[in-house]
Amino acid sequence: MTDTQVEAQDGVAEDAETTALRQEIRSWLASNWDPDLTVAEWWERLADDHWAVPTWPESDFGRGLSRGDAAVVAKEIAAAGAIGPPGGLGVMLAGPTIVAHGDEEQKRRYLRPIVTGQEAWCQLFSEPGAGSDLAGLAARAVRDGDEWIVNGQKVWTSGGQIADRGMLLARTDPDVPKHRGISWFAADMHQPGMDVRPLREMTGRALFNEVFMTDIRVRDDDIIGGLNNGWAVANTTLMVERMSLGAGGHGAASAAMPGTVAGDLEKRAGDFVRAPRSGSGDVMSGGAGAVVLALARKNAPITDAVLRQQLVQLYEMQEIARFANLRAKAARAAGVKLTGAEPNIAKLSMTRITRLAAHLGLALQGPAGQLWKDPHADPVMAELALFAPAVSIYGGTDEVQKNIIGERVLGLPAEPRTDKDVPFRDIPR
């Protein structure tokens, strides 16, 4: 070990910069964490001192940290017995998109309510006829003075029932090819004409919704990234989503829910230090492998050779994902250009990890693992088995990820597109 490295708490060597970061957040937590604060008050402290979303730029409530360093911050917050910063799609998707494409007024208007948890967001992208072909969306926005009137339907809207705002893609010019006539709006979810209907899944939960929009209104200055430039802005949102959902990611989200609808803001922060309200929270936010490996250690010794090999494979896949993040961090620090496929590869890796974790979670429990309410079964594993197929679909299907890698990174021939240069209104539907 060189003199620039020290021994981290878990026995893994870390550089002096990471150690200094660890010490800084520990000192800050010792001075600021108070379980008797309300959730809103605690989140304001995190936001004001730029710990809520440390990967964002310093000018936008962040610290410019890498994902790996942000994971250090998240672990220290948890180790201190504090609750993490707001989670949800505001922090995960809307904020990074506005940081990248918003003007200064839009950043001032939207970012602070996101990092303090005052506003929860949802994603109004997919439609019944525009899923994998997102650019084929039909929700229409028509200008009315300084506002736009929007009509259409969205589906698979995560968290729509508790959202204050929505990331809305709507068609603002049907006379140009489909990719060119889309705009990205910040829409008020509480207005008349916004009808949110939860969709029940086979897990028994209703994480997703269908949303019907009838003459809803959005202001012209709620367009993020410029009129008819929504496809470019949406690609930023989607790339951030794939990186966030992908293997090797780390979350510091609190068990408390952001926004005015969930009702957690005025509750005592210390009451959320216990396990998250959803028993499957860890597995559904990218931690399936870790949960299964912990279950395996609990059930040791394991004599089945095949099962042991698969557990090792699961561990290896997680470590590869972690090293991929470290490699990306080192490349950025050295000024080396990345391939651009890292988010897509991470998303594909997460699909493989989650599927294997679901299989192993049931195998470790034996026949009891197939029973939802059996006292000998782990209900988190039962839910993971039902949830696992979704990972290959949400955030862009595995097939979409492979197409992107093939066409945009490897330079393979693109799939034939007969509607590429055809005005949207002339495309047969």
Topology of helices and strands:
Blueprint (H helix, E strand, L loop, with lengths): L4 E3 L5 E3 H17 L6 H10 L18 H13 L9 H13 L2 H12 L5 E4 L15 E5 L2 E9 L9 E7 L10 E7 L5 E6 L8 E12 L3 E2 L5 H16 L35 H18 L6 H29 L8 H24 L13 H9 L10 H12 L20
Parallel strand pairs: 3-6
Antiparallel strand pairs: 1-2, 4-5, 5-9, 6-7, 7-10, 8-9
How does this model look, in words?
The protein is of the alpha+beta class and 429 residues long. It folds into three domains: 5-85 and 255-271, Butyryl-Coa Dehydrogenase, subunit A, domain 1 (Orthogonal Bundle), CATH 1.10.540; 118-243, Butyryl-CoA Dehydrogenase, subunit A, domain 2, CATH 2.40.110; 278-409, Butyryl-CoA Dehydrogenase, subunit A, domain 3 (Up-down Bundle). It has helices at 16-32, 39-48, 67-79, 89-101, 104-115, 230-245, 281-298, 305-333, 342-365, 379-387, 398-409, and strands at residues 5-7, 13-15, 121-124, 140-144, 147-155, 165-171, 182-188, 194-199, 208-219, 223-224. α7 (281-298) packs across α8 (305-333), α7 packs across α9 (342-365) and α7 (281-298) packs across α10. The model is unreliable at 1-11 and 275-281 (pLDDT under 50).
What labels would you give this structure?
429 residues, alpha+beta, Butyryl-Coa Dehydrogenase, subunit A, domain 1, Butyryl-CoA Dehydrogenase, subunit A, domain 2, Butyryl-CoA Dehydrogenase, subunit A, domain 3, four-stranded mixed beta sheet, four-stranded antiparallel beta sheet, 10 strands, 40% helix, globular, disordered N terminus
